[in-house]
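Before surveying the methods themselves, let us examine one representative protein, pairing a chain with its fold in token form.
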Amino acid sequence: MNKAVRHFLKEWRTAAEQTQQEVADAIGYERSYYSRIETGKRGYDQEILERLAKHYGVSPHDLIARNPASAASLWEIVDQLTPDDLVRLTDIARALGKVELKTPSVIITKPRPPSKTSRRSVRAA
């Protein structure tokens, strides 16, 4: 398995307060095999993700993209909206997409000290 590929299998298991043995039994694999997947020593495939997702009651995508210990994601909130609220949210998102962020016409910079030439000309005046 490419170690750069991140997943949250351990986090889902600990959030469910289960041991590796309990999860392995639930999805039909040996504990040692599941342990190697969870620790990244062995790759996972779609079948394993689907079995785990069914076990936890989430999507396979959640297992690799969302830490269950973190705050609710936008998609969790969207999933709980009524159809009317989804229409309103879509309208808001479209409106936000049309907002143009304008840069200020005046740029504030740190003032530079006067040059030696300008001091001479001020003294001479």
